[in-house]
Structure formats: C-alpha cells, structure tokens
Amino acid sequence: MAKLVLSHNGKVIDQYFLKKTSITIGRDKSNDIAIDDPLLSREHARIVSVGDDEIIEDLQSSNGTQINGRPLTRQILQHLDVIALGSHQLRYQSSRTASDADLERTIMIKALPRTTQSDADADAAILAIPVAHAARAKWPRGSVIVLKSPVSHSSGETIRLDEVVTTFGIPSEQLIVLTRRPQGVFVTHVEGKQFPSINGQTIGTTPYALRDGDLIEAAGYQLKFKLESPTEHA
Amino acid sequence: MLYSAEIFLIELIPANKMKSDSVHLEVTSLTDPGRVRALNEDAVAVDGESGFAVVADGMGGHRAGDVASRMALESVVERLRRQSRAPSPQRFAEQSIAAANFTVLSAARAKAEFKGMGTTLAMVFMHGQRAILAHVGDSRIYRLRKGSLELLTRDDTLLHDQLEQGLIGIEDAGDSHNRHMVTQALGIHEQITVHLHEEDVRRGDIYLLCTDGLNDLVDDKDIEVIIEALKTNLPLAAFHLVQLANDNGGYDNITVALIRVLNDAPTEIRPGWLSRLRNWMTS
C-alpha cells in the first residue's frame, strides 16, 4: 500500500497510508491529512485512487502546491514524488513504479461507474492512448546517397532514413525496404522478380545488415549507404 | 512513376464485370511470445475465403490464459466458417461472442485449474460491401484508408475510463499504472457488453487487428508508416510490426492480423491486358 510521509524542515512528523479512495489534505481538522500550517488553504489538495493510480489534484489553493518543484494542477503520483504545500512536504512512497506495469499481466477490474455524459458518448469516444515508451532516440541513424534512380530522386541527393521503414521502388512491381532497428539499418526485398544486391552480391529475401559505404542496387536504384556513428548522438 | 495501373483498373473495368456482392481479400497473421514471456497466451485466425480475422488475448487462471484465448477463438471461428450470418450480421456477431463467452465461462467453472481465466476478443468479418467489427476487452481494430490509420475500437480498460471521465489528461496516460486493467473479458461473467460497429468496405482498405503487445509498444504513427509502405507484401508488413514491438521491448505477447481489400480479383489482372493498357496510354 502506498503511503505519504509528512515532514517539516527535513524532519519527519507523521505518515499516512492511502487506504481510502479519496483523501483530502488541508488546514482544516476535517481533512484526512490535517496540517497545521497558515500557508495552507482549508481544503488544499485531494488524492483520488483509481485502480493502481493515485491521482493528486490541487483544489485551487491560495498558495498552490508543488510537485518535484513544479506547480501542480493534477497528475498521477509516482514512487518518491515530493509534494510541497506551504512549509511542509509530503513524500509519496509506493511499492510499484510505472515501469513495473510493463511486465504485469493483464488483470480484470470493475469499470468506473458511467457518468450520464460518458454513457451518451460511450461508443463515440475512441481515444488513441499513447504508448508508454518513446524509444528510438538512441537507435543508429543512416542515410543513402542516390547514385542512380529510375524516377523520382535526382542523382547525388541524400535521403535520411529517420522513419522505421523507408521504401525504394514501385509498389506492386519492384520494391525494397530499409528498416531502422536498434542493431542498425537493414535492407530487405519486398517484391518483384529481381532481388537486391549489395556490393554486387545478391541477398535474396533475407534481411541484410548494412555497413557504412555499402552499395545497394535494387529496383533500378543505386544507393550508397552511410551509417552515422551512434557515438555522435550519444 | 507516371501512373498507377490500379487506378485505371477501377475506371476501365465495365461496371457489369465487377462483383457487387463480394470483395476480394488478402489476409495474413503473425503471433509471437515477445522477448520476456515464455508462454504465448494470444490466439489468432484469418480466413480470406470466408472473409474474417479474429485475435484473442488470454489471461489469468494458473497458466490457463492460452486455454481461454484458444477456446474463444475456436468457438467464434467455427461459426464464422458457416455461410449463414443470420439473423443479421450484427446479431450474428453478438451471438457468436456470447456463445464463446459461455464456452469459456463453463470451462472455467468446471475445472479448478481454469478458474479465473478469461480472454479479450476482436473480430472483423466481411458481409457483402460491409465490414462488421466486434470486440470485448483491449484488443484493437484499426483501418488504414488512403494512407491514414484510424483506430475503430474503444479499449475496455480502466485507463480508458479514467481518460474518458477526465480524471487524467491524455498526456499523463503514459504515467498510469492502470494500462493492463481490462474492464471486460470473455469467460468472467454471464453478461458481457459487446462493442459492435459496421463500416463500408472500400477497395484498398487494410484492417489491422492486434493485441496490446503491439499497440502498447508501437506508436500509431509507426504502425501507419509500416503498413502503408509494405501493403503490397502483407506478411512482410506483419513481420515488421512484430519486430518493432520486440525492438521496443517485447514485454508482452504480440499478435497481428491483416486484411487487405484488393482492387480486384488477383487472377483478373492479366499482364497482357495491362501492357495493352499502357501502350494505349502512351500512344
């Protein structure tokens, strides 16, 4: 169970376990966590539990709340977050961290009770929830210099391979794909009668890990591959 | 490229030669345990002849998640292979999922080792010029149309409920601990709510069905880029999707099913006819 440790001037005063689904913090005695500090509003902040999330919200207090040094409006608490209210501090301690969730198995839980509004929108609301991770920043980058092209690109043009996949050729006829991966950039035959060749050697349908300076010939193209050293971007 | 042969095929085939009551499909599927888990609890089936794709993501019950997903999948597939979609396509979809729910629930109640097992399920089947979509849980259905990807399903997850009710903002979704909490699954209760949806089918549409092992780790933008770039080699597109989920961590089982609505029956595209068309175009 998560808990909050209250301290003042670096000295621990008390601790509170988050047992209820809604907990209020403020100067008034009626709060679940009552802190005798003139800088606090009577009802200063609230923590609501939803599943494994504890969501903290500032209740438009006069002097505001800070979380890890930044002004708080509302956010999901993470292990070791520091909440500053008036001259007091609350440290959030949880046995779980957001990255643990990656390895967790799916479990069943009761849905939140529907509000009238969300009921009306039930099937209209499709939210594209973003992925938990942004990866790729540290993946190797590559580019190709076009030496020969059947159509669209001009000779000498440099094409950066920033996307996860970049294709060259004509779909439904002759096509190759360059794939960006943590290990490097790979070239693979997509379709067509001719297989790509690297430095004059045909590679068939197997993905090939490109090395700096490799010459790719496929789909009427001649491309010189350039691998940017990952250390330049580290 | 000066012109696209595909566009001319649509315009030049006389209307009376186009089949109005059926569409030609290319289908593929791929499932992978990922890089962390030993067991694959996902299940998948695709069938281009009968025109359907189904994915299921099993869970719970002492290692019985794979039993739940396979059981639900087989139940639904058995019905989808029958020709009838009676009484109506939507009712048929609903009844198929209800029957699968009953099958998994009965097994879960009959055997101690199956207690608590359940599964998500997402399916798409073609009915004439319509696509019928149905799902329960957090497995998703997307569609790529004219190069842009659209999510067509609503996740049955606590995180989705939180966002919908404004408890947290979408920018905070990545900080949530509730990503893997599904609010609905087959095999848990006697009553379930099935999300049903019907779409018109257009030539060139590509449907993607996937389990959360894909969309938890791969951005919608990257899914779009991969399918659009590799749509003419659907198995390679599926391979790239699974590979990217693994490259991004592969924390969960990953399953994808793809349905591509072809411009026309592949056998009707004759090279001779095409080259005559080109000669005509360039003369």
General description of the model:
The complex is a heterodimer of chains A (234) and B (283). Chain A is mainly beta. Chain A has two helices and 22 strands. Chain A has a six-stranded antiparallel β-sheet, with no helix packed on it. In chain A, strands 14-13-22-21-18-19 form a six-stranded antiparallel β-sheet, with no helix packed on it. Chain A has a five-stranded mixed β-sheet with strand order 4-3-5-6-9, with no helix packed on it. The longest helix of chain A has 6 residues. Chain A starts with a strand and ends in a 6-residue tail after the last strand. Chain B is an alpha+beta fold. Chain B is built from eight helices and twelve strands. In chain B, strand 7 and strand 8 form a beta hairpin. The longest helix of chain B has 22 residues. The two termini of chain B are 17 Å apart. The relative contact order of chain B is 0.19. The N terminus and C terminus of chain B are likely disordered.
List keywords for this structure.
heterodimer; A: mainly beta; six-stranded antiparallel beta sheet; 4% helix; 44% strand; elongated; B: six-stranded antiparallel beta sheet; five-stranded antiparallel beta sheet; disordered N terminus; disordered C terminus
